[in-house]
Amino acid sequence: MNYLEPLPQQLTNFLLFFAFGFLAGFFFRVIEFLRSLFSKGKYALFVQDFLFSVAVTVLMFVFLLVYADGNVRLNLIFASALGAAVFFLTADRAVKKAFGALSAVFSKVVSLVSAPFIYLSKKLSKAAKKLFERIKAQRKQKKPPTEKKKEKKHQKKVQKPENMRKKHLKKHKKSL
User: Fold this and answer.
1) DSSP helix/strand/coil, 69
2) Would you tell me which of 9, 73, 91, 149 could form a disulfide with 5, CB atoms 3.0–4.6 Å apart?
3) Rounded mean pLDDT of 148-168?
């Protein structure tokens, strides 16, 4: 077992892991861009960050298996961290500007495409509101027949005790 790799192999691995870190930083900005377009909220942020961390960890593991023969070397982890730091210190601003321009274009396209649908939904909601107001006004003016029957039955029940009192009074007068 050879504990020391030849210098060209070490340099190649260092550069590969440096590129991996650089691409991981770029991938982070891509995820951030997609997050800004589609999802909002704390939970979505947590899930996306968690998935990003898992993806980068799995890719790092695969890189270690393929290029470092499964050996975890501190210099390779340092190379990936250095690659991410270089990305965030150099290319990050340009990538943010590019994604900002893409986001503006995307929002314009979405607003142009959705404008007719928004207009139609507003018109339909106004029409539906007027329709329901008319129905409500008609219900107040004209009660359904079942409600009328219920009211008549209720009125008869109210009148019955009065009729019964009159009958009792008549009987009582006759007996006197």
Assistant:
1) coil
2) 9
3) 60
